[in-house]
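Form P-L/3: holo structure prediction, ligand magnesium ion.
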Amino acid sequence: MTEGKILIVDDEKMQRETLAKLLKMENYTVRTAANGTEALNIIDQFMPAVVITDFRMPEMSGVELIEAVKKKNPLIEAIVVTAYGNIDIAVDAMKKGAYDFITKPIDFEHLSVLIKKASEKRTIAVENIQLKEQLSSIKHKIIGQSDAIKELLSVVKRVAATDAPVMITGESGTGKELIVDALHNSSGRKGNLIKINAAAIPPELLESELFGYEKGAFTGAENKRIGKFDLASGGTIFLDEIGDMPYNLQSKLLRVLQENMVMPIGASMEHPIDARIIVATNQNLDEKIKSGEFRSDLYYRLSVIKIDIPPLRERKEDIPILAEEFCKEFANRYNKNIKGFTSEALQILASYNYPGNIRELKNYVERAVILSHSALIDVSLLPSELKNQPDELVEDGLEATVAAIEKKLIKKALKEAGGVQTRAAKKLKISERTLRYKLAKYGFKQPDK
Ligand SMILES: Nc1ncnc2c1ncn2[C@@H]1O[C@H](COP(=O)(O)OP(=O)(O)OP(=O)(O)O)[C@@H](O)[C@H]1O
Ligand SMILES: [Mg+2]
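OUTPUT (holo model):
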C-alpha cells in the first residue's frame, strides 16, 4: 500500500529527522534520503504517496528531483520546502509538477494539511485510472460515434457492475436489447442473463413463468417449475416490454425489488434470489401511470438508473458507420465480395428518417447485400421510400422545400377530393380560406365557377 507513505529528502540530517519523527507520530510510514540520487533509488521499492523535498541541496535541486520523480511515476505528489521569501522558486517548482510548497521554518500543522490534500489528490487520480481501465474493458457490440452513443456507453460502463435496477427506454429498433447484453456481459455477474417479454406471454402464464410453482399448485401442475427469477439468480433478469406487465403482477414484482425474495405459486414460503433487474419499454410509462395502468411506486423502484436511447434520426452521424458495419457483417454471412456503398447510396441512406431505427437500416442493408452483383452497393438496390426524401430538397433552402411539399400535398388532396376545395381543406386540416390563399400563392389554376 502506497497510501500513508512519505519520503523526506533533505541534506541536513537534523531537519529531515525531526520531520520524520513528527510524521511518524501522525501514523505515516516515513523514509528519509540525504540527496536526490538516494531519493530516486528509494522510490523504486518504497513507492511513496508523497515526497517532501528541500529545495536547496547540492548536486540535484528539489525541483530537479521533482521532475525526475514525476517522470518515474506521475502519481507521486511532491511538496517542496523553500527558504522564507523564495516565492519565485516555489512557483517554478509548482510549474514543474510540485503539488505545493512550504516555507521554512516549517509550520507543522500547515504541512500536515498539505500532505492530506496531496494524498487525496493522488487517491482521486488513482481511482480515475482504475475507472478508465474498467471502462475500456466493457464488452459490447454497440456501434456509433455520436455524442449520444458515447454518453450512453459511459453510463453503461459506470453502472454495469452495480446491482441497481436499470430502465432502458427508446423507440423500437434503437438497440435496447444490445444495451442489456452489454450491461450483463460487463457486470462481472457469473449467473445467466434470462430474458422475458411481458407482452409475448399470456398474462395468466406470466406469474408462473416469472416465479415458478410448486407441484400440485393448480390442476396441471404435475411437477415443480423453476421460475425465471431463480434461473437468473446470480445473474441478470431482463423484463422486456415492462409496460405490458399485468397490474396484479406489478405489486409482486415490487416486492421482489424491495425484499429480493420470490414466492412461487403454491409455495408456503418465500425464498431469496439475487438477480439484477433490467427492464425496457418503448411505451410512454408516464401516461400509463396517469391512467392507472402502471404502478408509480414500481416505476420509481425500476428507474433508479434510466438509460434513454435516442432514435437514429437524432444521431444521423452514426448512419454511415452502422451501414458499413452491417454491410461487412452480411457480406460475410452471405459470402459476398462487397466492399461497401457508392457515395450516392450512402448519402441516401444517411438522409432518411428511419421510423424503425437501426433495425430498419439493418434490414435495408441486408436486402441490398443479398441483391447486389457488384463490389459496391448502388442506389438501385435501395428501396424507393428512401429515395424521395425531403432532405434532398433542403439544398434549395427551407422555404422552397416546404413550398414544394405543400404543393404536392395540396395537389394530392384536391385530386382525392375530386377538386372540391371544401373537402380538400378538410383533408388537409386547414380552413378553406387558407387553402384558397395557398392555391393563389402557388399559382394553382382556380376551378371555374
Ligand atoms: N448501436 C448499434 N450498433 C449495432 N447494432 C445495433 C445498434 N443498435 C441496434 N442494433 C441492431 O439493431 C437491431 C435492433 O436492436 P434491438 O433488438 O436491440 O432493438 P430494441 O430497442 O430492443 O427494439 P424493440 O423495442 O423493437 O424490441 C438488432 O439487430 C441490433 O443488433
Ligand atoms: Mg427489444
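COMMENT: Residues 141-144, 170, 172-178, 282, 322, 358-359, 362 surround adenosine-5'-triphosphate (ligand 1) (CB under 6 Å).
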